[in-house]
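Sequence, please.
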């Protein structure tokens, strides 16, 4: 029988997660978690990098230590303690009390047509104040379109403004495979929406392929990351932010995907 596991990543113990039957709690980083939880601190791990890699440290742990638990036909994926996958016919109003009944699970998961499942994408809309504040006068004079039209609010521009890391999102393109570099730059310049949050569901074969490429790329990206002062930017989780954009690019380029609903519901409150 095909199974579906959803790992719910959190950097702190959230007792509400213990009440949800349809997720597997996953503790990240160096905090202490119940023995019943999975954590990314054992065996082959990069748990100490959690501050800059965020949920990626648990993704890495699954990749290196847990794949033998799945057949090639099984599915597994990741959500977060504030963001959860929902079944397609979920209720309109969702609270923590009815969340578990509305979560995605094998009984309501249509896995027959695709092997990759992503969050429904979010359209990028930037505030004019942020555009003026985080771009130079020359940049705004040379390219004023983002000031007047949201159609010019792209993945690359959003990353520059939200993380305050200038052109790093473009500079790291040189570490991709040559066959991907132009497509990646076009994606940054012309795409106005993203499948955010490093949430995805797939099988072990595709996951392994994705992890190999992603972590090889992130390792090389460190050369560019060293050039910025992370503490003075909004990019403490720089590697997680880079991975978010890579996730959208890679899965959309190489695989047919289904987009699933999800909800923001903070279980820490």
């Amino acid at each position: 029988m095909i199974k579906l596991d959803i790992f719910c990543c959190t950097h702190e113990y959230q007792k509400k997660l213990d009440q949800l039957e349809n997720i597997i709690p996953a503790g990240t980083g160096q905090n202490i978690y119940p023995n019943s939880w999975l954590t990314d601190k054992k065996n082959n791990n990069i748990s100490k990098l959690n501050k800059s890699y965020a949920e990626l440290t648990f993704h890495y742990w699954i990749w290196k230590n847990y794949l033998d638990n799945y057949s090639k036909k099984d599915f597994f994926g990741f959500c977060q303690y504030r963001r959860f996958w929902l079944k397609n016919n979920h209720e309109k109003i969702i609270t923590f009390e009815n969340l578990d009944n509305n979560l995605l699970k094998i009984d309501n998961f249509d896995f027959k047509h695709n092997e990759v499942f992503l969050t429904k994408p979010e359209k990028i809309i930037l505030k004019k104040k942020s555009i003026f504040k985080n771009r130079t006068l020359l940049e705004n004079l040379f390219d004023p379109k983002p000031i007047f039209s949201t159609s010019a609010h792209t993945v690359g521009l959003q990353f520059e403004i939200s993380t305050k890391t200038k052109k790093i999102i473009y500079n790291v393109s040189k570490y991709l495979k040559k066959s991907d570099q132009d497509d990646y730059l076009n994606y940054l310049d012309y795409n106005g929406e993203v499948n955010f949050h490093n949430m995805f569901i797939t099988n072990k074969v595709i996951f392994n392929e994705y992890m190999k490429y992603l972590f090889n790329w992130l390792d090389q990206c460190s050369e560019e990351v060293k050039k910025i002062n992370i503490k003075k930017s909004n990019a403490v989780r720089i590697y997680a932010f880079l991975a978010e954009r890579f996730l959208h690019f890679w899965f959309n380029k190489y695989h047919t995907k289904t987009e699933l609903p999800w909800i923001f519901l903070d279980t820490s409150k």
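Residues 4-120+198-203+258-264 form one domain.
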